[in-house]
Sequence to fold (125 residues):
Amino acid sequence: MTGLAGKDRGYWNAVNSAKLFSQLNPYFIFMDSLTLFPDTELYRMEREGKFTPAGEKERIEELQVFIKNLQIRTHLFANSSSNFYPVTAYLPKERDFVASELQHVCDTVSEDKMAEYRRNLKSLG
Fold:
């Protein structure tokens, strides 16, 4: 889950997650992006200043790092509504293409526009 480690921790979360998944060697990986909703513990922690969520671009960069560090053949599904830019890919075959797409999003869409998308999510279902 991108963003779960919090602000400025996405890179290492991605590297460590990729190492773990590479050892587990699953056929499918489903990736979501952390979305805080009222009446949840992390939402409360954010309000109290005990947790700082990662920004939207950091989450996309985290997904890129995860994809680049994954050392297995697998189907990646990062296409739920929690992901600002939903992607699916067969890795490693589509690794470069997907990483390039994600970079294009980071380069062309503002953090504010991405954050607005997340703020407007009322549910993930």
